[in-house]
């Protein structure tokens, strides 16, 4: 992490590698919505420590994910928060339980797990949004997502 002398801006650049994505998500306090035998998360993020906005709202930069040989899964009963950048588990959850349904409504039949060979995504952080121009899920289905 690097902050300039006037504390107008701080920057952090990192890369995190894991051979067990689910265990890593759990260790950081997130729901293990993805298991993968290889995972790499890298980021180059900047924010102003003088901002009155919370860190995630003030941060700008780029975050990239590369996962291989794993599966996304739905965790309805797990109260732990999801890792927001994992779009595919959220997509599966939306298929399984459409908007407006509640726990007493029968969910639509959907896979509880979706295997992949690779899952890659890059997100641009700005104005409390994570916008992706490049999410590629390659497995039993091929999913390309553009959005936020």
Helix and strand arrangement:
Layout: E1 2-3, E2 10-18, H1 21-27, E3 34-47, H2 55-58, E4 60-73, H3 87-96, E5 113-126, E6 129-139, E7 142-147
Antiparallel strand pairs: 1-2, 2-3, 3-4, 4-5, 5-6, 6-7
Q: Could you describe the 3D structure shown?
A:
With 148 residues, the protein is mainly beta. The chain contains 3 helices and 7 strands; from the N terminus they run ββαβαβαβββ. It has helices spanning 21-27, 55-58, 87-96, and strands at 2-3, 10-18, 34-47, 60-73, 113-126, 129-139, 142-147. A 7-stranded antiparallel sheet has the order 1-2-3-4-5-6-7. The two termini are 26 Å apart. The model has no long low-confidence stretch (mean pLDDT 76).
Can I get a quick summary?
The chain has 148 residues and is mainly β.
Structural class: mainly beta
Biggest sheet details = 7 strands, antiparallel
Shape: elongated
Cα distance, first to last residue? 26 Å
Whole-number average pLDDT? 76
Series of H and E elements = EEHEHEHEEE
The proportion of residues forming helix, as a percent range, comes to: 10-25%
Notable characteristics:
148 residues; mainly beta; seven-stranded antiparallel β-sheet; 3 helices; elongated
